[in-house]
Predict the 3D structure of the following.
Amino acid sequence: MRKTAPQRLAEREARARSELLDSLFDAWIGQASNAATLDRLGPVDPLNAADVSRALKSDIAGPFGELTRETQGRIRAALTVLALSDGQEFRAYWLDLRAPFGSTEAEADAIFPVVARTFGARLPDTPPKTAS
């Protein structure tokens, strides 16, 4: 069946968000079993917001600060869109990323609010309902 224009647009927007997140998490892409990365970060409990925040500030915040303000704003906007969604898009992105921590859906769900807050995205007062 042929996709509608809104479906194609939604797919393009999701790809663009994924590319922006790639620019944010470039240092962690495919690092799930890289010993040097794991040693540098130390133990990170993906369900512990303080651990995730420490890891983000250690490895990701510096390169984020070096991005242009326009790119930083686009990343914040992408994170804001994700914050208003049901969580599936970020969950799939994070699991595909193969980051040095957070390899389950529950862990990806716990990581997202920390990522959003760390990089200045606004989170809704009430989290969206997730699709079950």
